[in-house]
Design a protein that fits this description.
The chain is an alpha/beta fold. The chain has ten helices and nine strands.
């Protein structure tokens, strides 16, 4: 039987009540910004899990968390991991590479522009599908001996010219790589206000080589290989 419990990441009491008699919590952060507004989420997670005596937390993080990463959400992910480490809770830290999924609905706009404009330069980005992320998390869930580890669920890394070629083949229309500046990109996608700068900071990280991360954790956990971008785009 499935029981649905409502909680509010910004209300520690609602989280505590939702966690009662729950052994394992899989925590997926919200997508609000700026970064500091997310801090209460993980603080409340720790407090609620301690009060409810949760036995294990799976924390779903992001790979743009290095100490020198300019991504505006990087401070949050760094803080979250260190807070968990100091909490005395049992936790598994799962970092994700970049989602492939948003590129599919973005493809018609790219076809119209005839260009991929990410301000990445010569940088490479490692992409993985949400479906493969879910498979990786489920694989860890099914292997208690793997709990307590730190994992990177990554797929394949692409340069932007390589990605433009793959997108062109999927769309049946030529898309060239023609990067705009970070400021131009931020102004083009600044809805809601401030989101453009956040996105630009992520591609700044990519330009610095900080999103070209790969691990074989997925292959070891799932006993399979993650989808390529071409395979993902070929699916309806």
């Amino acid at each position: 039987m499935c029981h649905i419990r409502q909680l509010d990441y910004f209300d520690v009491e609602s989280m505590t009540q939702a966690f009662e008699h729950i052994d394992l919590v899989i925590f997926i952060p919200s997508i609000i910004h700026p970064s500091f507004k997310r801090l209460p989420e993980v603080e409340n997670l720790v407090q609620a899990a301690q009060k409810a005596q949760v036995k294990q937390i799976f924390y779903i993080g992001f790979y743009a968390d290095q100490h020198n990463n300019p991504f505006h959400m990087s401070p949050y992910f760094a803080y979250a991991e260190r807070l968990l480490a100091s909490s005395r809770l049992n936790y598994t830290y799962i970092r994700m590479a970049m989602y492939m999924d948003p590129l599919k609905p973005y493809l018609p706009e790219l076809v119209k522009m005839k260009k991929l404009i990410y301000p990445v330069g010569d940088g490479r980005i490692n992409y993985i599908s949400r479906h493969d992320i879910a498979k990786g998390v489920i694989a860890i869930l099914q292997q208690p001996e793997a709990w307590g580890g730190r994992y990177l669920l990554s797929g394949h890394s692409y340069s932007m010219p390589e990605l433009a070629t793959i997108l062109s083949e999927a769309a049946g229309s030529t898309i060239n790589y023609a990067p705009v500046s970070l400021d131009t990109f931020a102004s083009m996608y600044d809805e809601p206000k401030g989101f453009g700068a956040l996105l630009a900071s992520m591609y700044d990280a990519a330009a610095r080589g900080l999103l070209d991360q790969h691990a074989d954790d997925y292959q070891k956990l799932v006993n399979d290989t993650p989808q390529t971008f071409a395979q993902f785009l070929s699916q309806s």
